[in-house]
């Protein structure tokens, strides 16, 4: 534990930033990085960005093209393409997505224990929060609610990874895997970070978890939104699993939106951002920064999915459909 605490403290000290600002900066930097990568030329985009089923045809075409070029040319290729091909070859199985939710659930449990006992890792983070952020703090009830929601989200997605999975040869670039792990580890902190002021003031006690406590208006509105979005996402994942491989979805959820399960993911984090808003704030800015990452990441994946559907099923299959956010995108 001392080693982990030292790592947390060293990481925060090296940024010379308030801990909450550093967490927000991570989400924003990751979002900007994804946007930058999306602007890469097609040759680089197909190497590093596309993954999963959408990459299957691309990879085979690239391999075929490379083989043709090799057989038809006796001159050695230039170093740059070879370096890019090597970097692109550093891939992990697509099944490694499961590790995102193992990390999410495990990190939630770890921080739950830290918050309950005000452990060393919690102290290392909370003592590096600026007075401004400590003053505008979430309540204990908000912390417990949002921690529970994030834990349930991680457990549900972990269950779906096991229940709705098929053997697959598809792979993803190792950077996707590392960024995904970092995101979920960051989210396990984001759901309580802006409650550090309250958590430093007093410990969590049994009375804080009584179900007889009347919910706030914010909770009354956005907890059902979180639960409904979670249910719709589960239904979407179950339906996609029930389809024959590479079949066009026809479920009502998919009539007007290409990836409604991604829409639900965004709504889940949006509802968390409202439920976790500190006193005097409309929304939790740390989770809002995480939502920006989720929206950009899934938005680009949705664009690739739409492109793949169009190539496989024709342009008419995508007519009248929004990518992810009805009326906007």
From TrEMBL:
Q: Which chain regions cross the lipid bilayer?
A: 22-40, 100-120, 171-193, 213-232, 253-276, 282-303
Task: State the organism's lineage.
Answer: Eukaryota, Fungi, Dikarya, Ascomycota, Pezizomycotina
Q: Domain of life of the organism in this record?
A: Eukaryota
Question: Which InterPro entries does this UniProt record tie to the protein?
Answer: 3-oxo-5_a-steroid_4-DH_C, Dfg10/SRD5A3
Any Pfam family from its record, for instance, is Steroid_dh
Q: Please identify the protein, giving its name as recorded.
A: Polyprenal reductase
Segments forming domain 3-oxo-5-alpha-steroid 4-dehydrogenase C-terminal: 213-329
Q: Which organism is it from?
A: Aspergillus homomorphus (strain CBS 101889)
| E.C. numbers | 1.3.1.94
Q: How does it sit in the membrane?
A: Multi-pass membrane protein
């Amino acid at each position: 534990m001392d080693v982990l605490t030292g790592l947390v403290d060293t990481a925060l000290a090296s940024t010379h930033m308030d801990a909450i600002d550093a967490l927000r900066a991570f989400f924003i930097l990751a979002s900007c990085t994804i946007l930058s990568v999306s602007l890469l030329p097609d040759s680089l985009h197909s190497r590093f960005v596309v993954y999963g089923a959408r990459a299957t045809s691309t990879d085979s075409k690239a391999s075929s093209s490379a083989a043709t070029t090799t057989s038809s040319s006796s001159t050695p290729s230039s170093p740059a393409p070879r370096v890019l091909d090597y970097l692109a070859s550093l891939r992990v199985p697509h099944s490694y997505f499961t590790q995102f939710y193992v990390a999410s659930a495990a990190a939630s449990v770890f921080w739950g224990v830290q918050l309950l006992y005000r452990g060393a890792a919690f102290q290392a983070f909370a003592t590096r929060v600026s007075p401004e952020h400590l003053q505008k703090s979430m309540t204990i009830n908000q912390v417990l609610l949002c921690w529970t929601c994030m834990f349930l989200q991680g457990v549900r997605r972990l269950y779906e990874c096991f229940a709705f999975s098929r053997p697959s040869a598809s792979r993803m670039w190792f950077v996707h895997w590392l960024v995904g792990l970092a995101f979920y580890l960051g989210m396990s902190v984001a759901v309580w970070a802006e409650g550090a002021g309250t958590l430093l003031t007093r410990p969590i006690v049994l009375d804080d978890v009584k179900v007889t406590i009347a919910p706030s208006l914010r909770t009354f509105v956005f907890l059902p939104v979180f639960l409904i979005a979670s249910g719709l996402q589960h239904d979407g994942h179950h339906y996609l699993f029930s389809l024959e491989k590479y079949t066009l979805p026809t479920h009502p959820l998919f009539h007007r939106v290409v990836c409604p399960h991604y829409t639900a993911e965004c709504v889940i984090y949006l509802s968390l951002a409202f439920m976790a808003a500190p006193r005097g704030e409309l929304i939790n800015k740390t989770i809002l920064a995480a939502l920006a990452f989720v929206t950009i990441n899934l938005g680009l994946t949705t664009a690739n999915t739409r492109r793949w559907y169009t190539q496989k099923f024709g342009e008419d299959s995508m007519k009248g459909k929004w990518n992810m956010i009805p009326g906007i995108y």
